[in-house]
Design a protein that fits this description.
The complex is a heterotetramer, with two copies of chain A (about 325 residues) and two copies of chain B (about 325 residues). Chain A is an alpha/beta fold. Chain A is about 35% helix and about 20% strand. Chain A has twelve helices and twelve strands. In chain A, helix 10 links the parallel strand 11 and strand 12. The radius of gyration of chain A is 20 Å and the shape is globular. With about 325 residues, chain B is an alpha/beta fold. In chain B, the strands form two sheets. Chain B has a six-stranded parallel sheet, sandwiched between helices. A two-stranded antiparallel ribbon of chain B has the order 5-6. In chain B, helix 1 packs antiparallel against helix 10 and helix 5 runs parallel beside helix 6. The chains are: A alpha/beta (about 325), B alpha/beta (about 325). Chains B and C meet through strand 2, helix 5 and helix 6 of B and helix 3, helix 4 and helix 5 of C. The structure holds thiamine diphosphate (2 copies) and magnesium ion (2 copies).
């Protein structure tokens, strides 16, 4: 066991990068402001890296997301393992060609001659009044893209272990971080530990209803489970951790056990990750569920600026709790 | 730049009025934020006031601008109403965007403030479209795209300038080179010394001017504006300036060169223009003090009105997504 | 009724553009090769437009998709109705910022002060050996984006009527054309006719099973329906026509009637359009269906080049027929 | 260009060998397509043979290239094996990419052909990464990005050249200006006359050369290659050439200026070099005829082997999507 004192997600990710770079000289880091001269990224996730590993391996870049991802792809074709940062998830929109037409497909299109073992770290999350262009959740796009893996940790220990695994993975991984929970402390990871990609975790055990969530929504789901526990509802919370490929085995087992499923994410509900999981579960568990599978996500709208609207946008513990109660009545 | 058109006394006064409005407004935003009364990501334009002021005095109301998150200076200079601005910053229903856009998406078509973007580079492609509309209508109006030095390295810059060049669009690209892109210096983001060099690659006029000098900025802007109105094509103006504050409120700018910053602040262009107006006998300290206190009152009124206004109704969450609700 | 002789999709779209531009001087056309000097687009959809309406309203552009969409957005903010062409759907990947962060959101972020009445015409489709970067189906990305509408006609008459409606719509519309069926003739549209956005069509009536499809898959579904009719299975084919917003009323009515639903599209199955529709129908029709809702789409892989692989990639009439037979046994 | 390094006789011979290989291969592809034996979108590089031939004679095997759909010339010059190429064009399991990539995604890392893209502009960002890898390893290798004149107007060009400039990457950007981007002329897509002008905007060396002239192309390429190997940074070479055929097979090129095309074809660079080799006494018609017929036989062998090979197994549909099957 690990009894180090709690750390934040920022610290966990920073440690993962330090440890990975120390272990393997092929690991590179690039992105806007990632160097120490620029303070190691706008929140310090890459702090200390360029000082320790040099500015050839840790490169701050111009504001050129296509060039960032392109450079990472090219280096990875030569056996490097670049960790590229796209500062905020909305800015992947200028680099989708590099990510989707190239990083995701080169292995297939080359008939397996080349591959792209890179990680794209990016960040998003409502709550800071950043408005419509800084808080989108675009994981569905990537999950719909063959060749990519998509990971989204909910706590520091998973952040560390998943990032280490993502870096070692031989395929391109989209690694989604959540800004508002960057500073939420959690148990420290065991140095050198790994969390395997594609494996969910049971964040809370329960028997009446299964919540499937990822990233920040896991924390909100746990809050909701706490709330409804007082009403005698026992909720199991499955933390997907990897969104693509998602852990069907664990999710199906939990859904089979409870017979009720609520999918929760911050992305807009329509065509969100929940749609695929619900559609799949409905096929597998047809006739075996106690109630329809429900999905909770953001409304079909851009992220609003005004605080009360922003607060009402993504599912939070209270709204999840309401959905649980209503689903128990279904 | 010796044969640049020069602003006359009245124009200089008007440039100052706009610049000091921007400066006082910025100081008030920061004060409100420090007091915890206003909570928003805020990108201060302090130090860059002269650029839009010396530009906008030659613009028509019908001319349009696209600007960026660091854009209150561009918008106030263009005539964005203070009350709508403050209510929007405060996320109120009475804001220009009903509180739904916020600091990074301030919009006010009546004053020509068509788009504020939070994405680096994205003001430029849209400004081309505004210019294209003017070109089709043949009304002699023009469009302005504001952006930073860092934005000059993103793909949208290139595509926009090239298209404007080949279509001879009535658009002006104002690169406000404040020496930093977030924490990154210009030298770390490009090997070229003057970004205006790039204009030649698009068969377009390009110039680097001291954006903090009202004469230079006014002259360069006027030439570009007349060129655009005459259908003679776009211009890239690199306006050299300096970002007095960190990238956004809360960023102390520890990475900024201390001496360089001290020098820039010592050469604060707004008080410099004030002193010049008095020195040249264009106006007096008394008159300017009255102007400034009048502006201060207008700002206060806008601030108070904003705070007194209601937040938007929760139903607004799904309104304005489409023309008609789903 | 309209008894003009059959025309192709290319001809139908060309007529729609001609008629629209003649009716409304605010309509503009732009994109790579769209001018007559450049032969009116690589397949001639925009033929004759620049000659008739001038090169100020019909503009061939540099290869600059961000600038193309940006110009269309800017012009539409000033009251024009631009029809921008992105030659192939894969190339939207370089313009996603303009489409998603701007076109889709400006109405909302401006609090309704501005809006973007533009159409983005684009094209895709396997079958010509174009390989991994020219045949993707990305409609899910756009359907997941609030503020956009997504349209995909399956036949020339709908192509005409939907394009006219899309141009007149006050919101940005992604208009998806299918390359391999560009030359498939169909009944000619009535000049000036409109097909409303958001309304599906019953392409074939049936009672045993409902297929929901769009674009080329409708034609394949009709072929499949014909095949299984001989086995006594009566299939109803719903042509969505508009993917977002999709016509829930029509689909739910058909699903309720038949009790069996098969969703078909050429896009990869995972996180495809079918996921949302299946998840939604399962909620609404919980306990009322005779069998699990099945989804047929492409495998989770890039589009392959080699002919036998490409032929096996997207659902065709034979594979749909198999799926129908198997679903009838569920 | 008078002080350019010049190719010696042996080098000129080698340039011709590569150029004629490309030309004969192209002619064979077209013949097979006309006969209906090969069905694929095909983008003929006829007319552009000298560019990669005069470049690649100065490259190492370990140097890498990224090219585009119109790229068989670049790849054959770099050493892409004929048998793997033909089997891939024919979609066979024995193709370099197992038939899964096809014409637009030909890949062969052993010969340094790392990426072929079907997306305009996308060869450039990736070439930077290949160059970055070489820079880190300090092995003196370089990377080449091939692209067309039309691609010079897309965002990826700009971002890539700027990054290469500021990072001083060992990369060379070869803009093969064949005067057309699909149906569009250069003049309709940009207001600049020489695309190499743009290099200055990135603090990078840039030059326009006659890409069809082996001396000029060889000299310019060698200078750029030595610059890159020495760690002195990237170069943009605009190599003027002409696209003899339509954009892709089936496009008759009706929009192309007839006289211009006739002139270009009359100046076909491959026979021109052939004639020169004989005129300068470097070789004889007999020797060249033998060389050409030998190449012809190699091509024939590759074609026959390709046709005889099996198509990939249907299980390949979902292989190579990830390192391990899902
Ligand atoms: C495409 C994109 N990438 C990254 C960012 C994050 N970002 C916001 S502002 C900024 C710096 C921009 O610098 P500059 O263009 O010089 O403008 P300034 O802020 O100095 O006015 C960055 C990198 C963004 N908004 N958009
Ligand atoms: C981003 C993108 N937009 C459009 C296309 C369609 N397209 C394919 S080739 C081409 C013309 C490219 O011209 P150029 O760069 O001059 O290269 P060339 O074909 O002449 O060798 C276009 C527009 C594409 N492949 N990618
Ligand atoms: Mg700046
Ligand atoms: Mg070309």
């Amino acid at each position: 066991m690990n009894d180090a004192k709690p750390i934040t997600m920022i610290e966990a990710l920073n440690r993962a990068l330090h440890d990975a770079m120390a272990d393997d000289p092929k690991i590179l880091v690039l992105g806007e402001e990632v160097g120490d001269k620029e303070e190691g990224g706008i929140t310090g996730v890459t702090k200390g890296l360029s000082t320790k590993f040099g500015t050839t391996r840790v490169k701050s870049t111009p504001i050129s997301e296509q060039a960032i991802i392109g450079a990472a792809i090219g280096a990875s074709l030569k056996g490097f393992r670049p960790v590229a940062e796209i500062m905020l998830m909305n800015f992947v929109t200028v680099a989708m060609d590099m990510i989707v037409n190239h990083a995701a497909k080169l292995r297939f299109m080359s008939g397996g001659q080349t591959h792209v073992p890179m990680v794209i770290r990016t960040m998003t999350g409502t709550g800071f009044g950043s408005g419509g262009q800084h808080c989108d959740y675009l994981e569905s796009w990537f999950a719909h893209t063959a060749g990519l893996k998509v990971v989204a940790p909910s706590n520091p220990a998973d952040g560390y272990g998943l990032l280490r695994s993502a870096i070692e993975d031989d395929d391109p991984v989209i690694f989604i971080e959540n800004l508002p929970t960057y500073w939420t402390p959690g148990p420290a990871p065991v140095p050198g530990s790994r969390v395997p990609l594609g494996k969910a975790a049971i964040a809370r055990q329960g028997s009446d209803l299964t919540i499937v969530a990822y990233s920040r929504s896991v924390l909100e789901a746990l809050g909701a489970a706490q709330i409804v526990a007082e009403k005698g509802i026992s909720v199991e919370v499955v933390d997907l951790r990897t969104i693509s490929p998602w852990d069907r085995e664990t999710v199906i087992a939990s859904a089979t056990k409870t017979g009720r499923v609520l999918l929760v994410h911050e992305a807009v509900r329509k065509h969100g990750i929940g749609a695929e999981i619900a559609a799949d579960l409905n096929e597998v568990l047809f006739g075996k569920l106690k109630a329809p599978i429900r999905r909770l996500g953001a409304p079909f709208a851009p992220v609003p600026f005004s605080k009360p609207l922003e607060d009402a946008f993504a599912p939070n513990a209270a709204r999840i709790a309401d959905a649980i109660v209503s689903l128990m009545k279904d | 730049m010796t044969n640049f058109p020069k602003p006359d006394a009245a124009t200089l006064m008007e440039i100052y009025r706009r610049a000091v409005l921007i400066k006082l407004n910025d100081e008030r935003v920061i004060k409100e934020m420090m007091a915890g009364k206003l909570v928003t990501p805020y990108y201060s334009p302090r130090g860059q006031e002269i650029i839009p002021s010396a530009l906008s005095v030659s613009l028509r109301d019908e001319d349009t601008i696209c600007t960026i998150y660091r854009g209150t200076h561009d918008m106030l200079a263009k005539g964005f109403p203070l009350d709508l601005l403050w209510a929007e910053l405060a996320g109120r229903a009475t804001g220009s965007c009903k509180g739904k856009g916020g600091t990074m998406h301030l919009t006010h078509p009546e004053s020509g403030c068509m788009v504020t973007t939070g994405v680096v580079g994205s003001s430029m492609p849209i400004a081309n479209g505004l210019a294209w509309a003017a070109q089709i209508e043949g009304n002699g109006n023009i469009a302005i795209a504001n952006f930073g030095d860092g934005a000059a390295n993103i793909g949208a810059f290139h595509e926009s300038l090239n298209m404007a060049g080949v279509w001879k669009l009535p658009v002006i690209f104002i690169c406000q080179n404040n020496r930093y892109a977030e924490h990154t210096t210009l030298a770390d983001s490009t090997a070229v010394e003057r970004l205006s060099t790039r204009a030649a690659g698009y068969g377009m006029a390009g110039i680097t001017v001291n954006g903090n000098d009202p004469d230079e900025m006014y002259g360069a802007a006027l030439i570009a504006i007349e060129r655009a109105r005459a259908g003679e094509g776009p211009t890239l103006i690199e306006a050299m300036t300096y970002r007095f504050n960190g990238h956004l409120m809360g960023d102390a700018g520890g990475y900024m060169d201390k001496a360089e910053k001290a020098e820039a602040v010592a050469n604060d262009p707004v008080p410099a223009l004030r002193a010049r107006l008095i020195a040249e006998g264009i106006t007096s300290d008394t008159e300017l003090t009255a102007l400034e206190s009048d502006i201060g009152l207008q700002i206060s009124a806008a601030v108070e009105a904003a705070y007194a206004a209601p937040y938007p109704d929760l139903a607004e969450l799904t309104r304005d997504v489409y023309a008609t609700a789903a």
